[in-house]
Write a structure and sequence with these properties.
The chain is an alpha+beta fold. Helix content is about 35%, strand content about 15%.
Length: about 100
Amino acid sequence: MSRCGGASSFPGDRRRAADPPLTGVVVTREQRQLAALEQTYPAWRITLQVSQIRWWATRYRPPTLAQIVAGMVARVARLTGKGLAAALAVQDELTHRTRST
């Protein structure tokens, strides 16, 4: 394997040298935040309502009654991606606490 990012010299290795950069593609800050949140919190479906500029996260698996009593919620809404990340971090901590009890 080449450490310089070029093609490998191993037989059968189909990796190419670097792909050419995309042209005409604009990735917004919100799209980057959305991708980061989706990777960080895979148990949640993350959406951004552009018309209202509101971030939503919905659990793929709703919390049980015991988890709800412990403070877990099925859905979270915030005005910013940063605010949603903070709220999901709290929910993640609650998830870990309820599993260990």
